[in-house]
Amino acid sequence: MPAREYLRRQAAGILCRYSVLDLAAAHDATNSSLAQRGCPMPGLEVSGTAELSVAAADRALADEHARRQRAADLEHGEELHRLAHLQQVLADPDLRRVWWMAQFPDRFNDLDNLALALKGLPAPQAAQDNDLRGDIRRFTDDLVTTLHTPQQREVFVQALVQTLTALGHHHLTTAAALRHRPHDPGSTPA
Questions:
Q1: Which of 88, 111, 164, 183 could bridge across to 150 with cysteines, CB 3.0–4.6 Å?
Q2: CA dist., res. 126 & res. 91, Å (int)
Q3: Residue 58 to residues 8, 20, 61, 72: CA-CA distances in angstroms?
Q4: Which of 167, 39, 70 is nearest to 159 (CA)?
Q5: Which long-range contacts (CB under 8 A, 24 or more apart) does 184-190 make?
């Protein structure tokens, strides 16, 4: 009984990560896990295999759910794209004027009210390549913003060049050194 319960728990833990649409992958993962010997109690070793099957109605229901989810995701993506475009248009005074004239040609005088209501509307942010790149960009922007004096910039560039050299990126080291132009003490940076 403990061995059977142990195998059931192990199989259930694996199967909860799969859909009936991934039956072959669920079958392989379950059997891979159950084929390894396990010890639910001292002195007791268990292993096993599982045969998985799905009713046709369950498979059809999962297919329908997946189809609806894809359609909803596509619709949501299109709406986000449309809203980002509208935000970009409304944030730019010139584009806003053209958009307003095209949408409401008979209400041109109301454009001033719209401009007042949208005052300070930011343009949409460009999507970052990925989270790591975005984090690095934000950190670098903050770091460069805090460097006020030429001496601080000099220390930063030296640390960057040493780090790149230690990592073996000699082409980046050369590029950093070429871009760096030392300032005379007391001068304002370019």
A1: 183
A2: 14
A3: 21, 8, 5, 21
A4: 167
A5: 184/150, 185/150, 185/151, 187/150, 189/149, 189/150, 189/153
Instruction: Name the helix (H) or strand (E) containing 39.
Output: strand 38-41
3-state secondary structure of 186: coil
Q: How many residues belong to the chain?
A: 190
137 and 146 Cβ atoms separated by less than 8 Å: no
Cβ proximity of 31 and 18 under 8 Å: no
Sign of CA dihedral 151, 154, 159, 160: positive
Interatomic CA distance for residues 128 and 184, integer angstroms: 36
Residue-wise pLDDT tens digits, 7-31: 788 788 888 888 888 888 888 888 8
CA 111, 114, 116, 121 dihedral sign is negative
The CA distance from 55 to 132, in Å, is 43
pTM of the predicted model as reported, rounded to 2 decimal places: 0.44
